[in-house]
Amino acid sequence: MEVTKLVVLPAVLAFFVLCLHFMTRMARLRNLNLPPGRLGWPVVGETLEFMHAMVEGNVLRFLQERVEKYDSRVFKTSMFGNPVAVFCGPAGNKFLFSNENKNVQVWWPSSVRKLLRLSLVTKVGDEAKMVRKLLMNFLNAETLKNYLPKMDRIAQHHIDTYWKGKEQVFVHPIVKLYTFELACCLFLSIEDSAQISKFSLKFDAFLKGIVGFSLNIPGTRFYRAMKAADEIRKEIKMILEKRKVDLEEKRASPTQDLLSHMLLTSDPSGKFMTEMEILDNILLLLFAGHDTSRSVLSLVMKYLGQLPQVYEHVLKEQLEIIRGKEVGQLLQWEDIQKMKYSWNVVCEVMRLSPPVSGAYREAIKDFTYADYNIPKGWKLHWNTNSSHKDPTIFSDPETFDASRFEGAGPTPFAHVPFGGGPRMCLGQEFARLEILVFMHNIVKRFKWELVIPDEKLKYDPMLEPVKGLEIRLHPSSS
Ligand code: HEM
């Protein structure tokens, strides 16, 4: 009798309360005019269909099928155990980007949140603003331009080491060595190649487990990613502890890299980031800061290999820059400003093949969009593929045409490879510099053609060529 009172009755009561809560929620949802769409199987929802579209590199088809069937402005689905409203086109992007902290807030699936713990991506509101400001002090153009000669030197050394003298290379694995080396050097002052390659191997496991179900059991991608994240944090912690001593004893400089900057900069109230926050933010920036740019560089190589007239135009622009410089002089800020056509090419590459497929927000209150009710707590998704191929904005959308970005460029909120609004990518300027520096160095030294011209692309989690993009290299006569 006692056991019944102590265990069974509370359990029955809890079950009853849960059922009541569920039924009230369902009744409330039934009375709402929710966006049309399909929630799919319980818990799994349409996650598997979405992940399959990512792996097939055909997210556009996933979106188009639903847009045609339901509504071109917004439709509902369910991913990672949550109902999700997918906001489409520039209007959807505009709504999500301009409603941060009003109707919506940034949200990432639990795999991302568990791996990146206390970093910026899990912060919202004023706390996020503060962290962004602090990181932006290092990632803004004014600061980064001081690192430009260093970037150029790293690019030249990279090409001498991995490209020079080769007849054939796999682009995707080797450009990773460039973007990762740059991030290690500028964020942590690691310059030893052996240490960088060991570190980069740990990142592979981390990257492959960041998007998906967060099942932390041996054998899953997520389990391996969690283990890798712990090991990476341990390595960064060792560097951090040594740096504190070096800074105190004036062996390290306050401006030498992002780590010194994070240790020495406080918010306006005088508060410094905790050690754990520094570790998680460096982990975030190392991850966000190299795999995305690596994806863009592989895709730039693919399009330049396929389109000789675009390659020639980029080469012409880069040779003019070289002509204005003394032999051996490293790239300067003014040189980057002259790379207008090259940057338009990168923008067009990112339009046709966006490296990041999209991101998420959460409804922080009930609101209405396009006449539909969006309940508080729903997750909201915007996808780069939704507006980038819209023929009403980009005429003949499948054709490569860098001139779309001349003058005022495309209509606002249509070209969104870096997202938008208060949570827009923090590393846009860093990415622009590392991509242009690489393009400058590669086109002046090589021409190339693709071994598999129609090689497919997949998101894993960034867009990448499925076979690593093998190319035949020819040293350039220019
Ligand atoms: C071409 C390369 C890159 C692309 C296409 C890209 C794209 C994106 C996108 C789509 C988002 C989500 C924005 C949103 O939710 O509205 C994002 C966020 C972010 N990116 Fe990038 N990114 C690139 C390079 C970088 C680099 C080099 C860094 C760091 C040095 C970086 C750091 C970040 C950070 C910290 C966030 C989170 C911002 C926040 O939550 O407030 N990204 N990026």
The CATH architecture designation of the domain at 122-358 and 391-475 is: Orthogonal Bundle
Rounded mean pLDDT score: 93
Distance between the termini: 92 Å
- Small molecules bound: protoporphyrin IX containing FE
Question: Could you say which overall geometry the principal axes of the C-alpha atoms support?
Answer: globular
Report Rg: 24 Å
Number of strands: 12
User: For the largest beta sheet, what order do the strands appear in spatially?
Assistant: 1-2-8-5-3
- Class from secondary-structure proportions: alpha+beta
User: Under the CATH scheme, which class of the domain at 122-358 and 391-475?
Assistant: Mainly Alpha
Major sheet size, sense and barrel closure: 5 strands, mixed
Strand-residue fraction?
A: 5-15%
* CATH homologous superfamily identity of the domain at 122-358 and 391-475: Cytochrome P450
Q: Helix-strand pattern, N to C? A: HHHEEHEHHHHEHHHHHHHHEEEEHHEEEE
Low-confidence stretches: none
Helicity, as a percent range: 40-55%
Subcellular location: Membrane
Keywords: Heme, Iron, Membrane, Metal-binding, Monooxygenase, Oxidoreductase, Transmembrane, Transmembrane helix
Protein name: Cytochrome P450
Transmembrane segments: 6-24
